[in-house]
Structures are given as structure tokens and as C-alpha cells.
């Protein structure tokens, strides 16, 4: 799974805002999506289930093929648009 970490509009010290780059920027984005997914789940799925569900809904990218495990990049929109996950939350989709 990939998420951009360059030129991300972020908070800076002393109440400032600006563009930053680095893995710390991508990490915060990915963590935010995971937190949003968990808040909608209504229960606590296993970490493996959460990862699998997020990977499944990532957007395929030919440019990422062979560069990431899934060849996908993370997008919350895909997760929210997936009716199966929106109804059940992470980890329940396979049981439908």
C-alpha cells in the first residue's frame, strides 16, 4: 500500500501551517484512515483483518506494481464507496 509523503499540507510548530515531506506525513495519513475505519466498525477487528480490508479497497496502480505488496495506493473514498464495507465494517465482509 502506498500513500504520498511529499508536499503534504500539515501543521507546523507555533500554530503555523505549511507543506512538509517524508514518511512521517504519509504515516499520519494512513493512521487517520485506519482510525476512521475502526470508528465505523462498531467493534474491534484484528489487525490482520483491518489491513486486509484496507488493502482490498486500495486503488490499483500500474506505476506501483512491483513496488508495493499490493500494487495499490490508499484512498478513503474507495473504502467509503464500497457498500459491503460500509454496511458491515472491517472484518465482516467475508461473512456476507
Account of the 3D structure:
The structure is a single chain. The protein is α+β, with helices and mostly antiparallel strands and 96 residues long. The protein has one domain. The chain is built from four helices and four strands, in the order ββααββαα.
State the gist of this model.
The chain is 44% helix and 15% strand. By secondary structure, it is an alpha+beta fold.
Quickly give the structural class: alpha+beta
Helix content: 40-55%
The biggest beta sheet is recorded as: 2 strands, antiparallel
Q: Shape, please?
A: globular
User: Can you write the helix and strand succession as a string?
Assistant: EEHHEEHH
For the record, give the distance between the C-alpha atoms at the N and C termini, rounded to a whole number. 25 Å
Stretches with pLDDT under 50, minimum 5 residues:
92-96
Give, in spatial order, the strands making up the sheet with the most strands.
1-2
Total helices: the number is: 4
Strand tally = 4
Number of domains: 1
Strand content: 5-15%
Alpha-carbon Rg, integer: 15 Å
Query: What is the residue-averaged pLDDT?
Result: 76
Amino acid at each position: 500500500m502506498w500513500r504520498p509523503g511529499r508536499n503534504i499540507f500539515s501543521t507546523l510548530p507555533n500554530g503555523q501551517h505549511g507543506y512538509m515531506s517524508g514518511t512521517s506525513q504519509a504515516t499520519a495519513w494512513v493512521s487517520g484512515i485506519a482510525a476512521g475505519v475502526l470508528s465505523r466498525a462498531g467493534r474491534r477487528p484484528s489487525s490482520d483483518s483491518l489491513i486486509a480490508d484496507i488493502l482490498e479497497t486500495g486503488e490499483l496502480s500500474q506505476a506501483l506494481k512491483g513496488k508495493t505488496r499490493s500494487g495499490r495506493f490508499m484512498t478513503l473514498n474507495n473504502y467509503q464507496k464500497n457498500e459491503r464495507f460500509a454496511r458491515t465494517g472491517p472484518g465482516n465482509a467475508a461473512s456476507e
